[in-house]
Amino acid sequence: MLENTLPVLLARLDFAWITTFHILYPPLTIGLAGMLFVGEALWLRTDDEYWYRLTRFFERLLIVNFAAGVATGVTMEMAFGILYGPFSQAAGPFFGQVLGYETITAFMYEAGFIGLMIFGWGKIGRKMHLFATFNVALSSALSAMWILDANSWMQTPTGVELRNGVFHVTSMAKALLNPDVLYAFPHMLVASYELALALVGAIAAWYILKGRHVAMFRRALRLVILALVVVAPLQVWLGDALGLTVARHQPTVLAAMEGHYDTYNPDGSVNTSWKLLAWPNAQNDGTVWSIEIPHVLSLLETHTWSGKVTGLNAFPADERPPMLIPFYGFRVMVACGLGMVLVAFWGAWLVYRRRLDARGAGTVWFLRAAVAAAALPYLGIWVGWWTREVGRQPWVVFKIMRTAEGVSRMSVTEEILWLGGYMAFELTVWGAVWWYLAKLVRQGPDLDAPIPVFGGADPEPGRAGGAPVRETPKAEWPAAPGGIPASGAR
Amino acid sequence: MGPLTHIQHVLATGWWVAAAFCLVLYVVLDGADLGAGIFSLFVPDADERGAIMQAMAGTWDANETWLVVAGGVLFGSFPFVYGSVLSYLLVPFVFILWGILTRAVALEFRHLAEPRWKPLTDRAFGLSSLVVTFFGGMAVGAVLHGFPLTDTPDTVPTYVGGAFRFISLFSVWTGIAAVVVVSLAGGLFVRARFEPQERVRQRAAAWTEIVFYLALGAVPISVVLMMVTFPWARQTWFGPDVWLWALIPLAAIGTTFLMRRANRRDRNLAALLWLDATIVIMAAGLIATLWPAIVPGTWTIDSGASREITLLRFYLTLAFLFPVTLMYNWYQIWVFRARVAKLASYHG
User: Which residues pair with B194 in a beta bridge?
Assistant: First the structure.
């Protein structure tokens, strides 16, 4: 079968494009929603206005990001049927069911509570509002779980058998708990939290550099650093564990990620060399050039000095994935992950030496690095996902269904129009999102708007966690404690 | 594929009712939002357009989600239908999705936009509402035509027939009819959502009056066209149960009359709900006419259903998840029930 005919390549590109421009948003929604829940819970517990201001500020960023996530996400679900009709039909009995659960238990659930979270301030009780925020955090994480479960099943399709062109579920439990998802979902979830932490940290660092709201954001940055010290290494460990799963279940993917073609050297000895950099040849059966370090590959993959790692050439030519994107995607992803660890520990060291508050050159350079580090998780998620998807080729369901068998019968013109249209729409959305996020950050947190009184829906109005609460007048928008009029309210 | 067992047949029927329920609920809930968007194209005052968007700010995405849920139910329980119908409807769905994308962005970003960009976001909002409605209506019309499938042994029958097969006189007409009906819902929605003294309500009243008569023409024409175009519709309606089928238009005329009365008495919410009742009755009539087909001549409930549907999952979804979803959907609408004023800020 001709694999990379133009229609198949374009169908892959079409889906790759909409995925790439969707995956920009949900991780931030998931991670930030979790952070907002923590912030709001702390506000209820301590009744410290600080947490309220911080939560409301970052909530405004979440709103912009969430809208883009929904806008680009509706397309994703429909695109399975539009671009990959035969795949949707064949895999539907399992895959469609999982996506169906995603829409019901996560998408719908999230859409319901996010409206309450955004517009419910002052309309519903304080605890009810915290409950809404909690549900946004939970439902968005659930959404990631279902999506990763469906995608992981395409990587390691257990619990099914293909009969008469349809995937029949032989064991729902095995299909749901397929080997890949056990680490892929935590890896994605932690990536989401890491991304949100990195972005919040970058914004905080930017304010400190600019000398605006310094006290407020120094406190936030310290907490972000402490969280990242745990999260960033955890993510590296999860990535490594997922790598072992790939090595065990998808040797072609591993070989492509490492650019490992020949299992044995010409002299018959085991090829143990790990490639730092390489370029594949046109036949995809070797490299044009490469920088190699002996024994490292065996050490990494088998934890022995010269253990055997199966190379790409051990597999039929029409079952080898292209090497370039998995190889470099994987390397860039690892670099992003390690970069985050570096920034986290650099920050932790400054916090430990109490130098985060100083204006020394070292601190300034750290703050600049923290601003730049926001790009790392975004880039890491992109290249990681590309590695995952391209590495699985030429299969849409690994070793069972080929991508070429799964694509809808579209003409090249239709596919190009789809791509062109989505390039225009989604680049506009992306531009608008960054424009507005930047605008909100430039505006800064609203420190003057009065804290809304929470209405009668709260069972115990004015009481939270047993802490005494400031008495607030019953007007809908009372003056701020400092007597500043409510003109700051939008 | 083997035949369904008896229990699976019952479950498949249940899933189809659930999917149809989601679709109709989407039309009813988002129809009002889309109609208000179309109406906003004829509103010259920028603040009033902004207020129309604000009137749906807290609920539009939950409303829209019913479309995604309908897609999810269809994908999960009728994957053979899902995979082929969306390939068939490639072009209308591309426009629907681009419309949804544009509308979401316009809705959410308007309050952040600089004043000079606001006319652009307003136009984008109005036009995208129009595009989603027209192509949505066209998609429904196109589905009634059915579509050809491959016939290769040992594979699932999949769509063949090109990207433009969906275009027909009938499907173009259903697109237009959808715009008319949804515009009526939009007018009633604006009447119901704004505070009584708002000027935009007067404009909406005039709009509702015109669109009502358009709808009064468009809907019967659609029914007649359907009768002329599709033999299966004729046969079903004028078969032995003709008196039973006659009850559907009678009920629709009754609810239409009640809608007019409520509208005259300025009971705006009641008017909107009576219109919704009319839409539900007509949609139920359409689905009953198709029964047991999902896509006439192409897929039936039995041939399109996944062989993996089981009682437990059906029970879990419909007895637990659906009611919970409906409950918080309702709670959300309840929280945001207050009428809005023109100068209300978006994120009050």
Answer: B340
Residue A357 scores a pLDDT above 70: yes
Question: At A118, is the pLDDT very low, low, confident or very high (cuts 50, 70, 90)?
Answer: confident
pLDDT at residue B268 greater than cutoff 70: yes
B100 neighbourhood in chain A, CB within 8 Å: 71, 74-75
Give me the residues paired with residue A169 across strands: A160
Contacts of B226 (CB under 8 A, 6+ apart): B144, B170, B233
Instruction: For residue A99, give both structure tokens.
Output: 């996506």
CA atoms within 13 A on the CB side of A11: 27
Q: How many whole angstroms separate alpha carbon A36 and alpha carbon A323?
A: 40
Distances (CA, A) of A41 to A48, A61, A169, A234, A481: 11, 19, 42, 25, 21
CA distance B312 to A233: 41
Q: Tokens 């999902």 belong to which residue?
A: B294
CA atoms within 13 A on the CB side of A171: 8
If you count residue pairs, one on A and one on B, with CB atoms under 8 Å apart, how many are there? 235
Tell me the one-letter amino acid at A430: W
Strands B299-300 and B293-295: antiparallel
In the three-class reduction of DSSP (H, G, I as helix; E, B as strand; rest coil), residue A355 is classed as coil
pLDDT tens per residue across span A29-60: 999 999 999 999 999 999 888 999 999 999 99
For chain A, the residue count is 490
A441 at the B interface (CB within 8 A)? no
Q: What does the block give as tokens for A162?
A: 């293909």
Q: Give the three-class secondary structure for B68.
A: helix
The pLDDT, as a whole number, for residue B344 is: 54
What phi and psi values does residue A311 have, to the nearest 5 degrees?
-95, 170
Tokens, residue B152:
């290769």
pLDDT of residue B260: 92
Beta bridge partners of A167: A162
Q: Residues of A with CB below 8 A from B68's CB?
A: 74, 77, 103, 107-108
Return d(Cα A441, Cα A438) in angstroms, integer. Answer: 5
Please choose, from the candidates B303, B172, B340, B117, the residue with its C-alpha nearest in 3D space to the C-alpha of residue A89: B303
Which has more pLDDT, B91 or A464? Answer: B91
Cα-based distances in Å from B336 to A70, A269, B58, B199: 21, 72, 7, 21
Burial A140-171 (b: 16+ CB within 10 A, else e): bbbbbbbbbbbbbbbbbbbbbeeeebbbbbee
Alpha carbon of residue A266 to chain centroid: 42
Q: Tell me how close the Cα of A105 comes to any Cα of chain B, in angstroms.
A: 7
Q: Over range A187-199, report the average pLDDT.
A: 96
Please name the helix (run of DSSP H) or strand (run of DSSP E) that holds residue B239, with its range, or none: none
CB-based contact B325 A166, cutoff 8 Å: no
Residue position matching structure tokens 């089928």: B245
The two counts, helices (H) then strands (E), for chain B are: 14, 2
In this complex, which of B87, B109, B332 lies closest to A432 when CB atoms are compared?
A: B109
Side chain identity at residue B159, one-letter code? Y
What average pLDDT does the segment B214-233 reach?
A: 93
Q: In angstroms, rounded to a whole number, what is the distance separating the alpha carbons of residues A323 and A275? A: 12
| Spatial CA neighbour of A93 closest among B77, B319, B101, B216 | B77
- Residues in chain B, how many? 348
